[in-house]
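Deliverable D5.2: sample structural annotation.
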Amino acid sequence: MTIVYILLAILIFGVLIAIHEFGHFAAAKACGVKVEEFAVGMGPAVWKKQKGETLYALRAIPIGGYCAMAGEDTSSEDPRAFTNAPVWKRFLILCAGSFMNFLLGFVIVLLLYSGAEAFRAPILDGFMDGCPYEGAEALQKGDRFYKIDGHRIYEYYDVSDFLSRGDGVYDIVVIRNGEKVTLKDFPMVPVEYEGYESKMYGFYFGVEDATPLVKLRASWETCMGFGRMVWQGLEQLLTGKVGVKDLSGPVGIVDLMAETGEQAKSVKDGVSSILYLGAFIAVNLAIMNMLPIPALDGGRVFLLLVTALVEALIGRKLDPKYEGYIHAAGMVLLLALMAFVMFNDVLRIVRG
């Protein structure tokens, strides 16, 4: 089944990129910007068709794609060129790719949760005998954890995660009878309970029925949790807790997806696990693409806003070729990083 999981992983990764570019394409069409070519895949074309002003192409390498708009990085006399569109339209077009990635991740999670009957939730269902954190001025049965030290609680396991990061005194917000209740400087450390070897906090989490509304909320909160994991990973990268060698590119991601499928107990579980991982990667791409780095959509948005501000101050339009130079330099550096990451991925796979 390994080859099947690899092909499924490649397909999912290709869809993630294609849906990103489709976001740019759909937004450009809606905003009246001329799209010269919309391609799924990279490399030589295996199929192409001219329809109106746009060339649609399916290319040989099933990873990647692009939406080529008129006047994207150069000045143009065409009134429908990207650079001649109002700032708000260019902003929407640039953000549309990441929006589609996040939306795809949300839809995948929603589909995976569609058959659920109940969800374990960060809702207190009871306390162990002798638990010191139960009381009128403390935690109560039915409380739903909302925040711990300012961090939103999405899943039940977020509670122990953020408690383990603290110093034993927390600002805890719970939802009680539909209202937010704050427990300021609330002391909480794991303690010993009879019959258990390890120390615990001493409360049980309950479940809630998977109504359509709960499924929507659970899907949204899962995606928000994905986003937080991405930001935590970036923080670790910037602080040096992880290095560039720990990053994974397309090769590493496909290998991880295939390995995830292989470790599942059944084909159904394998496909579900790969799709769940695909949803996480979709949210990851949505966030990473909006970082203010040249060549990425976030870098383009940043320079778009800076350029709009400068043009408003000096009263004339700047030549977009200079912005194009910045993105070209960023692309060279980005491709170099991707090549380095891909080399590490291949080396990691070969070494087993």
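Annotation notes: The chain has a mean pLDDT of 86. Strands lie at 35-51, 54-69, 118-127, 144-148, 151-152, 169-176, 179-187, 203-209.
The annotation will be released with the project's public dataset once the embargo ends.
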